[in-house]
Batch of 2 targets.
Target 1
Amino acid sequence: MGSSTIKPGFTFEYTMWIFTRISGLAMILLAIIGITAAFIMGARTQTDLPTLMRWTFFPNPNHVVNSEIPDITLGWANAFWQIMQILIVFFAATHAYNGLRVVLEDFMGHTIWRPLLRGFIFLLWIFSLILAVYVILAS
Amino acid sequence: MSLKRKVGFFQGLKYRGKGPMWAWILHRITGLSIILFVGLHVFASFFMQQFGSDIATSINIVYESWIFQILVIFIVIFHALNGFRIAVLDIWPQLLVYQREALWLQWLVFIPIYGLTIFILIQNNIIAI
């Protein structure tokens, strides 16, 4: 198996390789934006460190219940935070499912189970995204 | 594209890959752990909120306990920082000559962030107890 059997151009695996890096950096960037926006909204005096860290990891109202924020429904209800949450969930879910796929394929090799695994993970991914977006928008 | 080589797990651990190899192993373990723990937390929260499930509530009680959070915070921050190093070295491969220094820098950033978080976490919870 030499380099002559490697397909040039944008294969699925190459694209996912690129996406994993991009999504990882995007999540770090979204976390920084989340922290910054939290401080602008008054997190310095209204939350403690664990609350701020929970918020950074994923900005939803359940993560700030133990704080002195006057109105915690603000976090969920406006477009900025909902879009932030959807972006975080999208990048995280895709990044994670791809990582799972890579690890499992390392043990699986080129057998009949590989397309079945990819199909199964793909379905899980679609299901997770639909569920997450529903929860974010419908709460 | 598999090589016909059967290397056992413990034999593989003897490979002298040193720092970068342990970083790779730890990155995989933390990645799978994030999927397991965070995924469990997300599903438990969903069932707790929608159905008031007792099992889901117990899962979340464990997940949110401060002792467990010491582990979770390590897992998440390590995976993020290590991933950042990997992404940077993949985008600018000419920096690969500085792999060793990059790992030093990674730990140099990790230890204060993790240490401070853990210090505050333990301090708050020991006083409460």
Note: Residues 83 and 101 of chain B are 15 Å apart (CA to CA).
Target 2
Amino acid sequence: MPELLLELLSEEIPARIQRRAIEDLTELLRDKLAAAEIPATSLHGYVTPRRLAIIADGIPGVQPDRAEERRGPRVGAPQSAIDGFLRSAGLASAGQCEIRDTGRGEFYFAELHYPGRPAAQVLPEVIRAAMAELPWPKSMRYPASSLRWVRPLVSILCLFDGGVLLLPIDRVPVGRTTRGHRFLSPGEICVGNTADYIKRLGEAGVVLDRDHRTEMIRRGLERAVADEGMSLKPDPELLDEVTGLVEFPVVLAGEIDAEFMTLPPEVLATVMRTHQKYFSCVQTDGVPAPRFLFVANNVATDGGKTIIAGNERVLRARLADARFFWDQDRKTRLAARVDALRGRIFHAKLGSVFDKVERMVHLAEFLAPHVPGADVVRSRRAVRLAKADLSTSMVGEFPELQGIMGYYYALHDDEDSAVAAAIANHYKPLGPRDVCPTEPESVVLAIADKIDSLVALFAIGEKPTGSRDPYGLRRAALGLIRLILEKPVRLSLRSAFSVVERQLALGEVKTELLAFIADRLKVHLREQQFRHDLIDAVFALAGGLPEDDLFRLTDRAYYLREFLASSDGANLLTAFRRASNIVAIEERRDGCMYSGEVDESLLRELEEQALAARLAQVNSDPRMRLDFEDFRGAMSVLASLRQPVDEFFEKVTVNTDEPELRENRLRLLSRIRATMNRVADFSQIEG
Amino acid sequence: MILDLQGFWAGHGCVILQPYDVEVGAGTFHPATALCALGPEPWRAAYVQPSRRPTDGRYGENPNRLQQHYQLQVILKPAPADSQDLYLASLAAIGIDARLHDIRFVEDDWESPTLGAWGLGWEVWVDGMEVSQFTYFQQVGGIECDPVSTELTYGLERLAMYVQGVESVFDLDYNGASGAGRITYGRVFKRAEREFSAYNFEFADTARLVAHFADAETECRALVDRGLALPAYDQCLKASHLFNLLDARGAISVTERAAYILRLRALARACCETWLAGSRAVI
């Protein structure tokens, strides 16, 4: 079967979007080939910094023929209508049509035959359409073509069954040639077929297969560290990125001057990784090694000496910058930098970072007693210093080191180690995969930072909307939730919000914010396959304030799930629904509410007397007082309703002819609903 | 090195221009790029341009940071199909041999919010050091560039440090003489770095800068109304530099900053539209 080879050679494609681009192109082509009825039996995509390539096999040489039946006008219709139909169907006379009775009269039918077109004719259209639909995150115009692309297309190689397919891409050359590695073998390569393509590219210094390049780099890195008895700091993201920067990877090692090895390891790693895309090494004892590894895209004629020397020099300049900052910064105590925060705007409507710190001090004093082991004096000290590193040169240069630098500078100033750790940890967790701190003062600070930002930004209406969340409030809320649940911390969020609200004096947001947090909690739990309706059921109880202790809230939701899985729970839920449905229907029909007291003198049947008695018992049971926190107790009390409720429904008819009895029974049902709703809002439960 | 680069680009049909005499933040702002990138007429130019970046000043104490540095700027309209090859040949012309070095095109999308301009391209790395910016202009002044141009910006101090093998910009040999006659980059510029850093960060009178900004804005508008694109654009550049100074002084909040950028972008757009209208009239 004929094979298809397509290579789109362009100028360098950004590393981070290569993988997605080839996946999209492969998918688009696969779908379009299938839609054109010339599906490939195999189709593989390859990507390098300069090319997207597709190798497909088993594409049929022609499309299958297609037949279509078309209904024309009724027999005996005006001649003009019949002629029009014949013309459109490409027929000469009505005799070529079949006449068939459809049950609603006799009609002309034409059988149209479309012979399949050769794949070589269809493919250029298919490929062009796939290229036009390829969704680049950002694409550009350039003089050679009207087709937007991520960077200018240089040339296209397109062979089908050994012959060149001419694609209509304006002035971009299309043929059987491509180019090798930009520096190792920049000449033109003429390609006969797929096997030839891979072989010649390989000879021309291009490793086409991305996984193969990654593997070459991984092996190169391992060899380089093994030679020196060190180990590599694993960094899959960086490995992935550098794979997208080279067509022929060459791993090289450089040396870091000993004078820079006194810098904090995070500073070394950040300088090397973010600016230079270098890998860091550690010695067997975990101490940073004075080596860096990097991946070049060239086999230099001098064995890489010039390249290594150049990279060492760049790193030296970068690290000299960093050390300059490190030395300068340590000349001023962190405590002396707090005042500078007055000039740093947190938000135009909320004042400076200094103001934020002031609010956080009060908040930390409120929070510390709720976090087991947290010392209020240390917490307060840590808050005061938490943001002071923002005005250091190092954080100015490397914003991602905020907190971390505060930690080192605090230690340098002989601050308490718990205070320093809290400064380092207070931005955490930085994402769903980041760990939450566990040290008590760190937890206090991390919670205080997030609650302050949430309350303050909600107070000025900067809430996240749709995909817009410029202040990262969703992340802050999720961080807050995780900090509370993982420690765990027992805390009334409403009271904590009040501490900030009082200082801001911008009005109340706690209700709205609590609903926002509950939404994030649902998202968080859903990611752990937990049902959001159970959260709703325990979040907002009729007549009461929504639950604001997240630990208690989730604990109840978990228990509710357990309860509903038992036969008592499942039956009680069915009974609850039956009772509420009947009451709701009758209330709607009668236009009144049946929420009054049950009249005991009207309880005629044994079963309704028993149910009324049990309801009274349940309602007076001390375990039903939820502020005592005995949720499990309350649920077990509710479970005792199951039997009398079941018996009631079995024996007693609600809608009797006697209006007084009927009304009283509806009140009884209404009471079941009200009683159960004291513990959880069962009407929220789905399924 | 400047001569080599200029010679190379003159050989490829570029007009060799001189620096523009209004303070600009980058060579892109020179009218030979910002305005000439618009409209259909072919255009090729190369020139050196001092760039002022008030926030980058370090009082001359940092070996790699300057509040003013020099760029060599090349604009090629329309973008030639072999732009990258031409660029690599220009590196060879100043002694950077591609067989010995690791030259990379690393993604860097360029955007100038104040100029209402953006393009896609790369930073060019030589052995891990960024030596150039390479951009295909897509929009300037909010107007689509048709045809698209290639813009190349060489950081001259960086390149010179690389070629001379020095670690501090202030140690660059600036006249090739030895002994008492030797003049370094530091000798020429260090005092300016110190004094301008002090001015930019500490002593620029913010109230006066705000007033100057408003004046330049008014003047720019008035000139646009008279169809005088180039003088109007000068005022737009002045406003832009005043904004950079205010920014370095830390005198504007995040929201104010956004408002300033919008005002500047509106000026740039008006200038670019006036420029295009005028060039059509001339033809």
Note: The mean pLDDT of chain B is 91.
